[in-house]
């Protein structure tokens, strides 16, 4: 494992849809890059990468929300609720970063809070959602 990585792709759960796995991998790469920039103390790079992370996360959640709606996922409100809370947390930590430039506070979020949430969310919500949507797509054909 690269000591600057918070997680390795091989250590996150895989779901039934390759597209979702690809999005998860892309997001993980961004977060690992944020962490590496934090460790290097490169505040400008941290700021650029945090903006990229936020943009990617919004698009990621929007795509999943659209798919859940399109295919009538029964637990859509629960899954969307997790997206809303996770996005609020990410926006808050990035806003705090912009205000304080506190690498230690951001590092705690990036290296502990986010990975725990991410693995749990993929293991639970995304696993069930992807299986449902994949089956719904097969039934539609």
Could you please describe the fold and organization of this structure?
By secondary structure, the chain is mainly α. It has one domain (18-65, 75-140): Up-down Bundle (Four Helix Bundle (Hemerythrin (Met), subunit A)). Helix content is 81%, strand content 0%. It has four helices and no strands. Helix 2 (43-70) runs antiparallel to helix 3 and helix 3 packs antiparallel against helix 4 (103-140). The protein starts with 17 loop residues before the first helix and ends with a helix. The mean pLDDT is 96.
Please summarize what this structure is.
About 80% of the residues lie in helices and about 0% in strands. It has about 140 residues and is mainly alpha-helical. The chain has one domain: Hemerythrin-like (Four Helix Bundle (Hemerythrin (Met), subunit A), Up-down Bundle).
Overview features:
mainly alpha; 141 residues; 4 helices; 81% helix; Four Helix Bundle (Hemerythrin (Met), subunit A)
CATH architecture type: Up-down Bundle
Kindly report the CATH topology.
Four Helix Bundle (Hemerythrin (Met), subunit A)
Portion in beta strands: under 5%
Low-confidence stretches: none
Helix content: over 70%
Question: How many beta-strand segments?
Answer: 0
Give the class-level CATH name.
Mainly Alpha
Distance from N terminus to C terminus (CA atoms, Å) equals 41 Å
Shape designation: elongated
Total helix count? 4
Q: How would a crystallographer describe the biggest sheet? A: none
The number of domains: 1
Derived from helix and strand composition plus strand pairing, the structural class reads mainly alpha
């Amino acid at each position: 494992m690269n000591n600057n990585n918070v997680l390795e792709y091989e250590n996150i759960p895989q779901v039934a849809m390759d597209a979702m796995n690809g999005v998860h991998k892309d997001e993980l790469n961004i977060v690992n890059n944020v962490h590496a920039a934090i460790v290097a103390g490169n505040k400008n790079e941290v700021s650029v990468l945090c903006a990229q992370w936020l943009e990617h996360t919004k698009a990621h959640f929007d795509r999943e929300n659209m798919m859940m709606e399109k295919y009538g996922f029964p637990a859509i409100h629960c899954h969307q609720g997790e997206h809303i809370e996770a996005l609020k947390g990410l926006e808050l930590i990035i806003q705090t970063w912009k205000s304080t430039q506190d690498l230690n506070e951001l590092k705690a979020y990036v290296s502990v809070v986010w990975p725990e949430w991410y693995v749990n969310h993929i293991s639970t919500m995304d696993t069930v959602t992807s299986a449902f949507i994949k089956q719904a797509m097969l039934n539609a054909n």
